What we know:
Helices cover 46% and strands 8% of the residues. By secondary structure, it is mainly α.
Amino acid sequence: xxxxxxxxxxxxxxxMTGKQLAARVGIxxxxxxxxxxGKVRGIRFxxxxxxxxVLECQPGELIAYDPDPADLAMPAEPD
Length: 79
């Protein structure tokens, strides 16, 4: 997947643990862990906004995009 979660870098820079962040944002540690590992298919904008508010960052600091040219391949058109 071309999206990489970079939350751990931001947490380290802020000297904050995942447990502290989850408590301040109001989500479970399990939800945060799934996001950190990239195992979620999406995140609500409201949750992303709370993460950014608590961490004093921008969404782009939490998620990186690494383009993969294969993602641009067009599927074959049906006959």
